[in-house]
């Protein structure tokens, strides 16, 4: 695997990175655009995080591009001239505009739109020589996206940025959906296409409320229950079989609120159930279509994370991963 190269440090800019996996970046960004057309961008030495909120704070998504997804990566937070040195820089931008910019090279099927007079809907594969470079000079400046294919075709997009109201990478403001990892009560890992297929069926059933139910002793270990129009109910059950559920863990809360959750005692059946508006849950379907595996985690408050783990291969066949983490608040 090719490690991202450190460019000669340009002390006049905060961030610069180049990549050839334009198609995946475009599809991943589009997959969180269902939540909101506005995003917070957080830049660290480890990579990029795009975060979106649905406005009601019931659904949020965080898209992580690790730095190994880029062939070169430069981060210099000191350019912002903060009084204290920071390990991250956060700004806000129009996700819709960024996606429109990337659409120039990555059409609906992840291919560059034809620019040579060919018929509409006719696309060319992105070549191995196609590159995308992001440049951000610091607070108040635009995010600049350079797109280049070969030697002859290049495009420059400038996207306005705005002062972020969020607290930044891994820091929670009053509206962030926080998953309390020490208080997890359910953790499931399964194939992403299996989960997406069930969500598609829930869509077809015009589901309004969906419940995720786990039982530590079965016989139906993991269940997704749908309540649709006219209060019609349907339940999909998953056996605790490694060919279906790669990981299945149910934890119980302690009588001491300060202690973390723990495994049930032998012979003890612990049932966990939380319900959500399906209108929010369905927004993760495009991300599941990109992923090969999905991780579902719920804490004691019913806060749920559906993390989509996406395998990315470049022109050289190197496999890397990006992560799309959807967070949901349970119905009150």
Automatic annotation (TrEMBL):
Source organism, top-level taxon: Eukaryota
UniProt entry tagged with the keyword DNA repair: yes
Subcellular location, record wording: Nucleus
Cleavable signal peptide: none
InterPro entries: DNA_clamp_sf, Rad1_Rec1_Rad17
Entry's Gene Ontology BP terms: DNA damage checkpoint signaling; DNA repair
Key words, A-Z: DNA damage, DNA repair, Nucleus
Any one of the GO CC terms: checkpoint clamp complex
UniProt record similarity statement: Belongs to the rad1 family.
Name this polypeptide is given: DNA damage checkpoint control protein RAD17
């Amino acid at each position: 695997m090719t490690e991202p190269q450190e460019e000669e440090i340009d002390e006049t800019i905060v961030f610069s990175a180049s990549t050839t996996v334009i198609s995946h970046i475009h599809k991943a960004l589009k997959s969180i655009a269902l939540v909101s057309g506005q995003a917070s961008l957080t830049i660290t030495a480890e990579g990029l995080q795009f975060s979106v909120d649905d406005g009601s704070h019931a659904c949020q998504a965080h898209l992580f591009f690790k730095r190994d997804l880029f062939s070169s990566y430069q981060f210099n937070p000191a350019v912002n001239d903060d009084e204290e040195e920071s390990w991250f820089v956060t700004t806000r931008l129009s996700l819709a505009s960024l996606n429109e910019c990337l659409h120039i090279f990555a059409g609906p099927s992840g291919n560059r739109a034809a620019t040579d007079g060919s018929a509409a809907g006719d696309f060319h594969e992105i070549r191995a020589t196609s590159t995308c470079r992001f440049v951000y000079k610091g607070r108040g400046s635009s995010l600049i996206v350079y797109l280049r294919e070969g030697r002859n075709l290049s495009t420059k997009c400038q996207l306005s940025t705005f002062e972020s109201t969020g607290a930044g990478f891994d820091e929670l403001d009053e509206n962030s959906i926080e998953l309390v990892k020490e208080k997890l009560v359910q953790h499931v890992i399964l194939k992403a296409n299996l989960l997406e297929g069930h969500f598609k069926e829930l869509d077809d059933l015009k589901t309004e409320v969906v419940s995720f139910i786990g039982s530590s002793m079965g016989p139906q270990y993991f269940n997704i229950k749908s309540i649709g129009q006219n209060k019609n109910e349907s339940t999909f059950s998953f056996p605790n079989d490694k060919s279906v559920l790669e990981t299945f863990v149910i934890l119980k809360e302690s009588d001491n609120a300060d202690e973390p959750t723990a495994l049930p005692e032998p012979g003890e059946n612990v049932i966990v159930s939380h319900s959500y508006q399906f209108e929010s849950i369905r927004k993760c379907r495009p991300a599941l279509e990109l992923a090969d595996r999905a991780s579902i985690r719920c804490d004691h408050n019913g806060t749920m994370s559906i993390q989509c783990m996406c395998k990315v291969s470049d022109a050289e066949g190197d496999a890397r991963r990006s992560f799309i983490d959807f967070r949901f608040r349970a119905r009150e």
